[in-house]
Design goal:
This protein is an alpha+beta fold. The protein folds into three domains: 3-74, no CATH class; 93-124 and 319-390, Phage tail protein beta-alpha-beta fold, CATH 3.55.50; 128-308, Jelly Rolls (Sandwich). The protein has nine helices and 26 strands. It is globular, with a radius of gyration of 24 Å. The relative contact order is 0.15.
Length: 392
């Protein structure tokens, strides 16, 4: 996206939130004097909607959009300003992962000053490539960021970590048949990727643990997941690949899919990008097709399947989190895992506010909060070691 498009998206967002200043309005008025620019309005509206800066804009036609712009240019009302000043040209910022406690602090809400300037960065840890591998003998190896490492398993398997923080397993052909297991733990604020001995590629999100054989057997490939991972499974007709996570089993031959199964969430969600996946849960089973997501509630044998935009649930692999009409409680949970912070809501209703936006992981914590504050119309404060979500 070029700077010109970003500027137009910024204007359009401001139009529908009624918070453009006089300078923005003047600049926008000059731009849209040209007829060819006005004709592009519908394209930009769709671009804005597709980048998920604001929902519903794709319902507008060109004529109505232009009427709204003309009205906004003429509007001279005083614009409310928000306390956080790091505003974005359009809603694209941080993609983040988090933990939200269900405990409310409404009894203390009167003591919280949302108008105060807070140093949110003091509580946040910038996420990066970090993980620890537990070998078959129980020893732990910390993976050093941006450095090459060579690790040998007792069966002769070579585990290589390159300078780009990718792990690759290379097994010898004459290895014994007994399975040896490794476990990789990715902490809160971390992420990692690895290539298993069969060629399957796995991307691990923050606060995730994966247990897997150093070398798979000839007739099955089983791994055990807690947290979130994206799998690109190497095809092998003779050995189905199965992800075990709490009550659920996800079986495939060769495909790409995402599994979210954190200990602190009651559901297991599997999103299929390509191929086919069989979901099994407490005696029940269903087939999942590309572009669909299955949800299993832990302890129940029901499997719910719905059509979704798979990219919304897999974009984190590419360093971008996209949210479309998702509740703040879920988003703050994602945010907390990535930045290793905890959130509290002053009121239950704030958890259910819907947010739409695209967030990049590499940006700062305050950058993320500023985006959410502006679009979702909430405020943030600090109390002790926690971020409080409420309204001024």
């Amino acid at each position: 996206m070029n700077k010109g498009e970003e500027k137009i998206i910024f204007w359009i967002r401001g139009i529908f939130h009624n918070d453009l200043n006089d300078g923005d309005k003047k600049e926008m008025k000059v731009f849209f004097k040209k007829k060819e620019n006005r004709k592009k309005i519908h394209h930009y509206l769709r671009l804005y909607s597709n980048s998920r800066a604001i929902g519903l804009l794709n319902q507008l036609d060109e004529e109505k959009a232009w009427e709204r712009i003309q009205s906004n240019i003429a509007d001279k009302k005083k614009v409310k300003t928000k306390k956080l000043h790091l505003w974005l040209p359009y809603a694209a910022a941080v993609a983040i992962i988090a933990i939200v406690s269900t405990v409310l602090i409404s009894q203390h809400s009167g003591e919280i000053d949302f108008s105060k300037e807070y140093d949110f960065e003091q509580l946040a840890q910038q996420g990066d490539k970090s993980a620890i591998i537990t070998l078959a003998d129980g020893s732990h190896v910390k993976l050093t960021k941006d450095q090459e490492q060579q690790i040998s398993e007792k069966d002769g398997t070579q585990i290589t970590k390159d300078s780009l923080n990718n792990i690759i397993y290379l097994s010898k052909e004459n290895q014994p048949t007994a399975l040896l297991y490794n476990t990789i733990n990715v902490p809160r604020g971390g992420e990692y990727s690895l290539t298993l001995s069969d060629g399957t590629k796995v991307w691990l999100n923050a606060d995730t643990k994966l247990r897997y054989p150093v070398k798979f057997s000839d007739n099955k490939r089983d791994v055990y997941l807690t947290g979130e991972a994206y799998f690109k499974v190497a095809h092998n007709k003779q050995a189905p690949f199965t992800v075990h996570s709490h009550d659920a089993e996800i079986k495939v031959l060769g495909t790409s899919f995402n599994v979210s199964a954190y200990n602190d969430q009651e559901f297991i969600a599997t999103t299929l990008v390509e191929g086919a996946v069989q979901i099994q849960n407490l005696g029940n089973q269903k087939l999942l097709k590309p572009g669909f997501q299955s949800t299993v509630i832990r302890g129940r044998n029901e499997i719910d399947i719905r059509k979704v935009d798979a990219y919304l649930y897999t974009s984190w692999v590419n360093g971008v989190y996209e949210f479309e009409n998702m509740e703040l409680e879920y988003i703050m949970t994602q945010l907390g895992r990535w930045y290793d912070v905890k959130f509290f809501f002053t009121e239950e209703s704030y958890k259910h506010i819907k947010f739409t936006g695209a967030l990049e992981k590499e940006n700062s914590f305050e950058y993320a909060l500023n985006l959410i504050e502006r679009v979702a119309d909430v405020d943030f404060a600090i109390q002790g070691r926690h971020i409080v979500v409420g309204r001024e």
